Every structure is written in C-alpha cells, then in structure tokens.
Amino acid sequence: MASVDYRSLAADILREVGGEDNVSSAVHCATRLRLRLKDEGKADTGAIEKLPGVITVMKAGGQYQVVIGNDVPTVYAELSRITRFGSEDAGTAGGDAPTQGNLFNRFIDMVSGIFTPMLWPLAGSGLFKAFLTMATTFGWIKATDQSYIILAAAADALFYFLPIFLAVTAARRFKANQFTAMAIAGALVYPTIVALAADGKPVAFAGIPVVMMNYTSSVIPILVAVWLLGHLERFLLKILLSAVRNFLVPLLCIAIMVPLTLMTVGPVTTFISAGISNGVSAIFGFAPWLAGAIMGGLWQVFVLFGLHWGFVPLMATDLATLHYSIMFGPVVPAVLAQAASMLAVALRSRSAKRRAVAAPAALSGFLAGVTEPGIYGVNLPLKKPFYFGIAGGAVGGAIAGMGGSAATAFVFPSLLSLPAFSQVGSFAVLMLGVLAAVLIAFLLTFFFGPREQADDDAAATVAQEPAGPAVAAAGNITVLAPVTGAVVALTDVPDKVFASGAMGAGLGIVPEEDRVYSPVSGTVQAVMKTGHAYGIKSDDGVEVLVHIGIDTVQMKGEGFVSAVSRGDRVEAGALLATVDRAKILEAGYDTTTLMVVTNTKDLTAVVPLAQGRLTHGVPALDVEL
User: Fold this and answer.
1) pTM greater than the 0.85 cutoff
2) Is 13:7 a contact under the CB 8 Å cutoff?
3) Is position 279 within any domain?
4) CA nearest 48: which of 34, 74, 63, 67?
5) What's the confidence (pLDDT) of residue 292?
6) How far apart are CA 341 and CA 449, in angstroms?
7) Of 98, 121, 318, 409, which alpha carbon lies 20 to 30 A from 472's?
8) DSSP symbols for 395-428
9) Could you list the residue range(s) of the whole structural domain that residue 74 is in?
10) What's the confidence (pLDDT) of residue 225?
11) What is the DSSP letter of 97?
C-alpha cells in the first residue's frame, strides 16, 4: 500500500461514485470509507474495486462502503482536501455552521466553543473556590490546615491543569488525536517544567536556549499547539508506512510538539508580556490614571492570552521590596466589572441555560476573583458583556490608579480580598473605582446586552443533562443484552416495521426471564405509560429502544411494572422493568424483546455480535460512532 498515491485514490473514488454532488455525507471507520450516495446507480462499483488501494466495496445500512484497510484515514484526509467533507473549518465541535465575521470575533467564537463542554465543571469549581476563599477570610478554616489543602486541590485542579482539559476539546475542533494532545498538554504543566520556569535559571534544549514560562491555567499556548498537532498528524499519516503508522505518529508528534511549543510559544509570550508589563509599569510613573485604565481595561484580555504572567514578577518584586504593589490596584475593578456583566446576564437573559451558568460564575467572580467560568461561558460567547466589562474596568482602573491604590499581599482581586488594598493609597478612591466599574459594566450589559431567545423544551432538557461526547466522536461502544434468551435476527422478527430496519439496526431476543435490564449507561428519555418500551440515551449519544414483546401496547400495561421513570440516570445492567411473560402469552402476543439503535443513521455502524443464546449483560451490539 506504500506505493499508493492517496490523493489520486481519493479523487478517483470521488469520480467513480458520481462526483461530490452525488455524495450526501462521507465518514470513515477503522477500515472503510463510508459514503451516503444520493443515487447509487451513478456509482461504478467495478471500477472502484479495481483502483489500487481498494480491497472491495460493500453496500449496507444505506452506506456505500469502500474497504481500504489501515490507510483509510489518509484517504479520507485527502478526500477532505478536495471536497466539503471533513474540512477543518466546517464548524464547531458541536456541528455548528462555520463562524462568520471578523478575525477577532471568529477567534472568540472558537475559544468559546472549545470551552463549552467544560462549562459546568468550571462553574462548579469556581464556586467551590469562592466558598473556600470566604471560609478562610472569615476564619472558619486556616489555609495551613490539611483539610483546607485537600479541598483547595479539589477546587483548583481544573484551573491548574486547564491546558490538559482544553487539549481534549481543541483536538476535536482541530481534528487531532485527543490523547496525543493531552500528552503534550501534560508535558507543559509537568512539575519539573513548572519548576524550571519558576527557577529562573537558563534552560536549553539540544544546545538551543529555551525561554520558560508557567503554562498552568494557560489557554492560548495549548490551542496553538493542538492546531499545529492536527497538521503534523495529517502530514505524518500521509508519508508513513501503514505498518508503523499507529505508533510512530503519536511518538513523533509528542517528541516534536513538546520542545517546539516550549521553544516558540514560551519566548513569544514572555517577550510580549514583558514588554507590556514594563511599559505599563513605566506609565505608572508619570500618568497613573492612564496605566490604571490600561490595567483595568485589558487585564482580562492579558489573562486570555497568558500575557498576565509578565506582570507577576513585577508585582512580586514590589511586594518583596516595597511591601506593596500599585499594579494590583486597577485589577480589582477589572475583575469585578466582568463579574458585574455576568450578573446582568443572569438577571436579564431569556435563556435558562445561560442564566444557569452566569449566576454561579458571577458569584465566584465577586467572592473569589475567579472569572474563567463566566468569561468563557457567558461574556466571551455573547461578546458585548465582555466589551462592557472592559469599559467598566478601564474607567474603574483609571480611578484606582489616580488614588494610588495598591495591594499589600498577593491575592486574587475580589470583594473578600479588599482588606489587602486598604493600607496604601486611598481606599475610598479604590471603592469609587470599583463602584464605577461595576455599575458601568452591569448597566450597559443589562440595558444593551444581548437578550437571547428563551430555550425551547428540548434545549432546556439538554442543558440540564450532563454533556457527553458527541455522536460524531471517534470510537466504539458496546450495547449489552437487556434480557437472557435466544437471539433472533431483526429481519426475522414478526413485526414489519422493526424487521425493515425503519426504526434502526438491532436484534431481537426471545426472553427466558421476567426481568429486563438497561443495555447502556445513560439517561432514560422515554417510558411508555404501558411499561412495554423504554428509550435510553447513552453517555456516548447512542439512542437505544428496548421494546418488550410484539404489539404488547395492546395490553395497556397489564403484566408490566416499570422500575425507572423518564429523566432517571441508569447504569448498564440496571433493572428497567419486570414482566409477566405468562400474561403476554396468555393474551396471545409474542414475547420477543426488541433492542434497536434508533439513531443508527447518525452512526457509522451498528453490528449485532451475538447468535444463539445469550445472557443479559453480555455484549450484543457493537456501535461504531
């Protein structure tokens, strides 16, 4: 296969199936290029099977499957280059349309989309940190207590290791391997790397100087690294032999990307942040109000790009030598202005889903100075609240700068940390600046911010459920048998609708017991009042229907006892229902229990695994996502 020209092969396959206009969708699994054709009559199967690199062609499940083998990812990558399928800008991870607008807006939308899957953990962790801050401020617990140390680790872990979490969602966005991306992110926050950055001593890699920075809690460096990783993986998949590709691609990607990221992102970020911080520090000498406006207005932007680390050494030096840092003062209005924008969204938005994120995010921002949940889940996606927060922070920061407000301790700027700003400069002026920042950001957002439409019932339901991986994510899951009994091919069940596959792929089982169990872990989305049918959406997005008996709806619930309700969380193997099979037979109905994947058309493949007799809880269907 090494001699195959993959780009030509992709073009040849596309031509022989009738061109791009005849292809509705294109995906691939481990060995097959799976196409949905508008008119299979236009496809020249014989010609395709003769193409170098093609093993055979199969037609199943409404798909035109070109079997290629281990080289199918490379063929699919080449197909993506010449068609609309699988393009890198084909929308967000959730499948939205490509973002329109200027470059900055597209960047904001990209960052917001990457953060979306982790909003609830971010909000929960932020609120956790707020409560811990309040507990230490009021003396309920000491920061030196072992209990506090354990709780602080639990509250701060998501923020500290944020690059690793972002690697997962960024890899989906940029079509890179998630685990390779996580390995790269893990190297950036590895303890010895963090120690090298803190040590301040010269660092070199292969004799080349490396400017170190602290990547914990950072955002942009890992996004850039994963974007480059996606391109590198596709290049390596194209040039490496299939026999060694599976292990050499991740090996080379990790070996190349970790040093490359440290040698490029670190120096660039450090150079820019040092220049900005030194410039702002100089401005404080002759125009404190201007420096305050810059710090107050742009602090959250600095944090977004990781440039705030350039200010940390200056602040720390001031605290060590002067016992106060004037650069800290304007940061308080900056942080609280963004929190005020979040509060306005929580009070004004018509979207229950947005309000549910904005309210705890505002609380964590006000109490602990933790703004990440609200920035990435509320203000940035809506844009205007972020801009209004910048405006409020700039005005409040200018006022704080004029008052000479400074911190006497290294703290997270928040309402609870205000005592640290009371000993240097005018505390009253600082309070005036904070009040101005909060009012400007809140009122602008409340009256001029986006209202958003109210969530419909379906959207609200989704918002309340834990977010699982998208159905389109790569991988396989196993659906378990719901009952013990003899397997019946779906085409042989005595029900034309199920047998035709119209309800999805699956199988039937003639039960030998009166208990029916959940085939997957997930959420119960439907329970028939008669107790004879259950719809479950797995954590991986697979929708499974368990239908007990044929035409048993006519029994009006007699002989069926449900063990679950709509909205319940169930684990695979949990009891769904108890059935009186004798009553079903007595009523003249077939007891065959049907299990079908109702969203089969959205999946790559659903393959029955069992024949003969099986026991409940053993694998029955293999679902390729």
Assistant:
1) no
2) no
3) no
4) 67
5) 92
6) 9
7) 121
8) HHHHHHHHTT-BBSS----SSTTGGGGSSBS-HH
9) 6-82
10) 92
11) P
CB 610 within 8 A of CB 487: yes
- What mean pLDDT comes out for the span 569-575? 89
CATH of the domain at 14: 3.30.1360.60
| Residue 253: active-site member | no
Our count of domains for the chain comes to 3
Grouping H, G, I as helix, E, B as strand and the rest as coil, residue 559 is coil
Marked catalytic residue, from 28, 532, 547, 616: 547
| Shared-domain flag, residues 444 and 489 | no
pLDDT of 429 = 94
CB contact set of 251 (below 8 Å; sequence gap of 6+)? none
The reply to whether 480 and 447 lie within a common domain is no
Mean pLDDT of the chain: 82
Reading the block at residue 179, the tokens are 């685990």
Cβ count within 10 A of residue 178: 18
The enclosing domain of 480 has a CATH number of: 2.70.70.10
**Does one domain contain both 450 and 340?**
yes
Q: How is the beta sheet containing 63-67 ordered, strand by strand?
A: 23-28, 32-37, 63-67, 56-60
Which CA distances in Å does 45 have to 18, 57, 239, 493, 605? 11, 7, 28, 32, 21
Number of residues written out for the chain: 625
pLDDT tens by residue, 155-175: 889 889 989 998 988 887 787
301 shares its domain with 339: yes
Whether residue 547 lies in the annotated active site: yes
CB atoms closer than 10 angstroms to residue 47: 15
Longest dimension (CA), the chain: 94
Q: To which H or E segment does residue 200 belong?
A: none
Active-site residue identified among 29, 253, 532, 616: 29
Q: Which amino acid is located at 156 in the chain?
A: D
